[in-house]
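#dry-run=false #mode=assembly
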Amino acid sequence: MKELLDITNLTKKYYNKVALDDVTISFEKGKIYGLMGPNGSGKTTLMKVIIGLHKQTSGNVLINDNPLSYKTKCFVSYMPTENFLYESFKVKDIVKYYSDMYPDFRSDYAMEILKEINVDIEFRVSKLSSGLIGKLKVALALSRDTLIYLLDEPLNGVDVLARDAIMDLIVKSYNENKVFIISSHLVSETEKILDSVVFLKDGKVELCGDAEELRQQHGMSIENLYKEVYK
Amino acid sequence: MEFNNNMPIYLQVIHKLKQDIVTGKLRPGEKMLSSREYSHELGLNFNTVARVYKEMEMENIVFTKRGLGTFITESTEKIEIIRYEMAKELLENFVNGMEHIGFTRKDMVEFINK
Amino acid sequence: MFKIIKYDFIRKYKLILIILIAAVFLNLLAIVKFSVQGGVMFLGLFPIAMILLYIVDIIKMYSDDLNKKSGYMLFMTSYSGYKIIVSKLITAILEAIAILLLYLIFILINSIYFSTTQGFDLNVNEIISAVNTILSGRLGFNLGHVFVFLLTVLVFATGFILTAYTSITIRKSIFSETKFGGVLSFIIFIALNWASSFSSSKLMSILPPYYDISGDLGQISATQLIIALLPIIILSVVESILMTLGSGYLLEKRINL
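#status=ok
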C-alpha cells in the first residue's frame, strides 16, 4: 500500500462554520507534501483530526490501513503551531518526557539536533525565545522515528538562518517509507523541498499535484500559483 | 545554489550539472554524490534529485554501476555534444534577443568582432 | 499509565515544595508564638487549608490538560482514554494519601516536641494503653469502625473526584464549542451530583426493610455499620465505574481540544 494516509469524505463542522468540507485525499509514502492555504482554510484542523486532537463530524481516515483511533497516534508525529510544551520544564526534561512517552523517540538524535541548532538544553521552556521554541518543536517532532510527520507552520517565528537549518533537517529526515506534510505560509521558502502541494480553500481541496509538474504546467512558482488561486 | 522557483527545479539542477561537466568541474568518469547526499547539499527534495539523475542517465550523460554509485560519462564525445547543445541554446537566445532589438545577423557578427 | 502519574507529580513538584516549606514555617511560627495552643491551632487549621488546596489542585490538574494547549503533551501520546482517566484518578488518590500521611507526620512531630519540652514523659506504656482503649472499643469505636470510615471516605472521595473530572470531560467533548466552559462544567457537575443523590434516595426508599436496625444506636458494631452503609457504598462504586467508562470513552473518541 503506497498510501500511508487515506482520507475519505472528511468533514468537520462547528456551530457556525465548516472547517473541513468533504475532503478526500491520499498521501503517499516517500513524499514531502506542502499543505497550503490562508488562515481558516482547514490546514490545522486537518492535522488535528489526523492526530486525534479533534473529532471529525463525518468521514474516514485510514492511517497505514488502520482506522483512526488512539492506537494510530503512534504512527503520527505532530508539531502543533501553538506553544504547547510544559513551561516549567527544562529542554532536557522535555526530551526525557518524549523519550518516556514515545518508544520511537530517538533521544541521542534529538540532542544532536538541538546542539546543532543552538538550543541550550538547560534552559527552561518559559525562558526560551519564540525562535528557539520553534526550533525545539521541530527537533522534537523530527526525532521520532515514525511514519507520518505533520508539521504545522514549522518556520513560524523562526529567524532566517534557523529556517534554513529546519528545512535542512526536514530534507535530511526524508525516507522512502515516511510521509511529511508541512503547512506553511512561507511558500517561497518551503517550495523547493516539496514533492507535492495541496491547496485548501474554505475546507475544500482546491488544487493538488506534483510541484514540478505544476511549475511546468502553469509556468510559475508555487508561490505565484498560490497568489493566483487565492486572490 | 539559488533556484528559480518559477520553473521546474530539476531542469535547473540538470543545467548546472551539465555546466559543471562541460567546464571540467566534474571530470569524465568521476563519481557523483549519491542522490541522498546531493539532495542534502542542495537543500532539495530527494525525489527531485533522483529525477535529475534518472533523466541524465536516460540521456547517457551519467551512468549507474550497481552498488557503486553514479558516474559521469567517460565519453569525451558525449561531453562535446553537451557543450555543443548548450552553446546552441545560448546562441539561439542571443540571436533572438538581438533580433528583438533590431540587429541583423550581419550586425551581430560585426558586434561580436568588435 | 504509571508514566502519566509520574509526570503529573513531576509537574507539581515545585508546588509541593512550596506548600511543604510554608507548612513547616507556619507550624514553627505557631509554636514559637503560641506554644502548645499554637501547635494545636496549626494542627486544626492544616486539614482545612489542605483540603481546599487539594480540591483546587486536582481539578486544575485535569482542567489544564483538557483546556490548555499544554494538554497536547498528553493527548498526542497513544494512551487510551480509559488509561488516562484512571491515571488521573490514581494521581488524585495518591495525592490525598500523601497529604494524609503528611498530616500524621506533623501530628507526630508536634506531639513528640510537646511531650518532651513540656515535661511530659514519653511513656510508651501510656501510649500503648491509650491505643488499646481505642482498639477495645471502650470509647465506643474500634479499629473496625476506623476501617469502615476510611473505606467510606475513599469511595465517596473517588466519586467526588470522578464527578468533577467527568463534568470537565463532558464539557470538552460534547459541548466543546460552547462558551463559558468553566460555568458549564460546574453546571454539569451539579447535575451529576443531583443525579447521584437522586439515585441514592431512590435506593434508600426501595430498601426500608434492610434498614430495620434494632438495638441501641450508640452501640453499633463495625460489622453492622458496614452492612448499613453497603448499599450506598455499592451505588457509589457503580457510579464511579460508570463515570470512568464514560469519561474514558469520551476522552478516546469524542474529545475536541
